[in-house]
Amino acid sequence: MNHFFESKHLLLNSKDKFLPNILLNNVIFGYYEGKIKILLKKLMIYDKWMLPEGFIYKTESVEEAAYRALKENIGIDNILLTQFHVFGEINRLYSKVDKNILNQRYVSIGYYAFVNYSKVKMFCNEKEEIRWFDINKLPKLYGDHNKIINTAIFEICKYINHIPIGYELLPEKFTMSELRLIYEAFLGENLDRRNFQRKMLSMGFINKLNEKSEKRGIKPTILYSFKKDKYMKCLMQFLKL
């Protein structure tokens, strides 16, 4: 039984085990071939895609539930999840198809995460599939999931000049152009190459390596790596504010 149908089974038959009328939605960002991607799933009985979801057991915290749902959906748990908003409009419905839950209103707690594109377990079966989409080329989405995604991006953009991003998205060694493309994708604007490089190096969590990229047809470019300890310290200090 896949994760969604397992969750639906719990919803209908094990109401005493989890908090009623509360969902978690994880906005999962990846980076591939110069593009920011968002992970979506689709049920074969619907024509719209949706964000990975999860329910909250009464025996676990909201954060524990978010990490459990993340692992159940994509097989990854050793990453940072950031809670960014609660969605509770009066017209939020879990499903307009299932008569058993037609009139129930669901509050959704939004989390976002940056993950390594290559480490996500992709799957497709007769009931459900999961796929990456470009951040600017999303398909038709279920319910208010467009709003959830846009809110996650808005929250990231509010703090992007003060906190480091990119560690989870990029390979161990990367070019400054690759890092800049990530910032430009979220901000929706082009950044000055020299100013960006100067700012990134001044923040103290990037190492300049004595190595250059060796991609065929591309001029060799200096490689960089993250100072993981300083990167995480800077990130955690900001998240505690």
From TrEMBL:
Cited Gene3D superfamilies: Nucleoside Triphosphate Pyrophosphohydrolase, Winged helix-like DNA-binding domain superfamily/Winged helix DNA-binding domain
Classification via Pfam families: NUDIX (PF00293), WHD_NrtR (PF21906)
Domain Nudix hydrolase positions: 1-155
GO molecular function, one term: hydrolase activity
Coiled coil: none
Domain of life: Bacteria
Alphabetical UniProt keywords: Hydrolase
This protein's name: NUDIX hydrolase
Organism whose genome encodes this protein: Apibacter adventoris
